Amino acid sequence: MDVSRYVHDAERATRDALTGLFNRASFHQLLREKLVVAQRTGEALAVLCIDLDRFKSVNDTLGHPVGDGLLAKVGERLRSMSRETDFVARLGGDEFGILQTGGDQPLAAQAMATRLVDLIGRTYVVDGHMLNIGASVGIALAPGDSSNPEVLLKRADLALYKAKVDGRGTFRFFEGEMDARMQARRAMEINIRKAMALKELELVYQPQVHLETNAVVGFEALLRWNNAERGVVSPADFIPLAEEIGLIVPIGDWVLRTACHEAASWSQPVSIAVNLSPVQFRNAKLIESVVSALASSGLDPGRLELEITEGALLENTERVLSVLNALRAIGVRISMDDFGTGYSSLSYLQKFPFDKIKIDQSFVRGNTDDSNAIVRAVAGLGASLGIRTTAEGVETVEQLNRIRAQGCHEVQGYFTGRPMAATAAASLLNATSSH
Amino acid sequence: MANDVYRLVYYSRNRMTGTPDDLAASIATILNTSQANNGKVGVTGALMFNSGFFGQVLEGPQAAVESVFERIQQDDRHGEVSLLAFETAPTRSFEGWSMGFVGASVPDAARYGAIVQDSGFDPTRMSGNALFETLHHLALDDEKLAAA
Which parts of the sequence belong to the BLUF domain (chain B) (predicted)? Predict the structure, then answer.
């Protein structure tokens, strides 16, 4: 009886078809077996989780055949650098894993990871294309980090996550605090999701005052989160996470609808400013969301001001311009927020007619020659381009007088009005309209 | 299309350590292996080197050039590999394998002379081609760095 076919089939079941490396299932099996042996012998093992950086863009721009060719070459490189005591696997997609046995840990794992980042990061040529990708690596050690295969893999993954956060193209060993930090993050994520359902989010409104007439000409809607356990959570503490996990889109949608409804009920047709996150700005449903918020509230589109930061404008000029123009076509106004803190590309001011530039509070509060010169220059820039300018963060009468002298049109800050509840904003407008 | 000659040019830094004689021995091995392996798959070209630098031109069918280059990339005797060109070429510039020491160091020239004397490396053939001249300049700069 010829058993070679059965042996061959059994072998194939443990391998990844594209790279010939171990597949995920056999990698887990190997890990379990080697951990049992290591516990008996007292030997240290290392698990390395590897993620390719920028692989997706190769697949997206050049197609799957080139992507597959690249993965095969990555597999070849990993194999070329591994010894008989190393087990290399493709865990799926662009994820690889190496189980390193028989080494002097953690030095062996560190040497391997260093080599790996260098080797995988070297240029590839595939089907006539020059390709550049990188590798991020997370390492967990047994028995130090755990002798349980699932826990060990999870910890290598946490270290991988850290390597990516730290800028990719590098490696990190698992550290105890990564677990705690990840748990805090997960708890925060659950809480943000709940906040939507429990209606813990609310908007407050900060007045914007015209410098010549001293009249309130608009409000900026600002997000507040009042959590039963955490108290008032600052947007700086939850917006970045909400952006990362995509929750900013439904949150932003809610903000738009709520702000439009509120403004539609005001006794004066002043403007309502709403911040757009760069993530929302890149989202394909933004236009739909704006149209829908305007339609359901009945708000005049000319009263809605969308504030975008320079961060939203950084990439892909053509697409950015088409979104800005589509928003303009609906009739809403567009403000450049926090001007001066980021990229401050003057070419954007030329390519797209912003309705307003908001000068960042750091220039308003910093009473130095430099910050004064910057405020004056931006006010002058606005005046000559026909764009209104608003100074943010005015807290004292001195700052107000200075801003006035420098030629800004409007002002927003604690001195002219703190953020207030919706009812207070409505009353403020009622009070001034009855004069 | 399938008969097109592809030309790949790269430049990398030498990571080998050891005495000058060790280095000379390693380079001799590299040259022998390249000649033997690349000839079989129809890849020809030129290798320039000195104590700090490798510069190589590979010419041949696309798939063969890609696989030879991939093997070179997996070699940790060099690093910081810059791919200067990867394109189709009307004809081969190198019909066989040639290799040459390019550098200003007199002792190195003497040491490597024996290795390269039979390879047919002719720097004058390279003058006039901007890419080869670039490689040559890079080589001289790196030799200075390695000596410093």
Answer: 5-100
Interface test with B, best of A74, A76, A118, A122 (most B CBs within 10 A): A122
Q: What is the C-alpha to C-alpha distance for residues A107 and A105, in angstroms, rounded to an integer?
A: 5
Q: Is B54 on the interface with A (CB under 8 A)?
A: no
Considering only alpha carbons, which residue of chain B is nearest residue A131? B83
Same domain, A152 and A218: no
Q: Tell me, yes or no, if B72 comes closer than 8 A to chain A by beta carbon.
A: no
Interface test with A, best of B73, B78, B84 (most A CBs within 10 A): B73
Q: Does A118 lie in the same domain as A206? A: no
Q: pLDDT tens digit string along A139-192?
A: 999 999 999 999 999 999 999 999 998 888 999 999 988 888 888 888 888 888
